[in-house]
Amino acid sequence: MSSPSVVVLDYGSGNLRSAVRAVERAGADVTLTSDLDAAMEADGLLVPGVGAYAACMEGLRAIRGERVIARRLSGGRPVLGICVGMQILFERGIEHGVETDGCGEWPGVVERIQAPIVPHMGWNTVHVPEGSRLFAGIEDERFYFVHSYAVRDWTLVTNDRTPDAYQPRVIWAEHGGDRFVAAVENGPLSATQFHPEKSGDAGAQLLRNWVGTLGAA
């Protein structure tokens, strides 16, 4: 049986080689590219992101990456966002008083963490709800964060008619007394605020868990 194919989307967001290597170690056949046809056809799409929200959205729109994310999700095809690659999935971000529209896959605002020490940098535990596939076997582990901004209020509303696979599982973390969204699982769309590729064995297991779901539907 061949390995699942994953495209790491290259839209000018920093050094992506560590993400590529980490997903390769998780058992995928990985391509780093900005080619949208390849991004559509892959079993999984990983959207990385470092730096400023506005700059990431500018780079993403320059290659029409927001369209391929939306098209994949409308067809139930898996997408994983990491760090700012998670943040841009929300409706908008506010940095230094500048408001930028995001991809709008989830409602919510990315804003500065309200903590005495920012950025939040280092290892932290997360609070995982029952039934998580992404965090299976690593619910009590710590993950590596580097960020000053996050989603501090989850606002997506679902009801009992929403299939269980599409009921969002929201993973929370705390820093300096402020709670924020650390990760989300929502049908084909998953995302982490932390860096799994920098999170040692726990991050490696999370990526294996994700790669293990590709093509399983």
List the keywords.
cytoplasm; Rossmann fold; about 220 residues; 13 strands; 4-stranded mixed beta sheet; hydrolase; globular; alpha/beta; glutamine amidotransferase
Q: What does this entry show, briefly?
A:
This protein has 217 residues and is of the alpha/beta class. It has helices at residues 17-25, 36-41, 53-62, 65-74, 84-87, 200-213, and strands at 5-9, 29-33, 44-47, 79-82, 90-95, 98-101, 106-112, 120-125, 142-147, 149-151, 169-175, 178-186, 189-192.
Task: Indicate the topology.
Blueprint: E1 5-9, H1 17-25, E2 29-33, H2 36-41, E3 44-47, H3 53-62, H4 65-74, E4 79-82, H5 84-87, E5 90-95, E6 98-101, E7 106-112, E8 120-125, E9 142-147, E10 149-151, E11 169-175, E12 178-186, E13 189-192, H6 200-213
Task: Provide structural commentary.
This protein is an alpha/beta fold and 217 residues long. The protein has a single domain (5-213), classed as Class I glutamine amidotransferase (GATase) domain (Rossmann fold). It contains 6 helices and 13 strands. It has helices spanning 17-25, 36-41, 53-62, 65-74, 84-87, 200-213, and strands at residues 5-9, 29-33, 44-47, 79-82, 90-95, 98-101, 106-112, 120-125, 142-147, 149-151, 169-175, 178-186, 189-192. It has a 7-stranded mixed beta sheet, sandwiched between helices. It has a 4-stranded mixed beta sheet with strand order 6-5-7-10, with helices on one face.
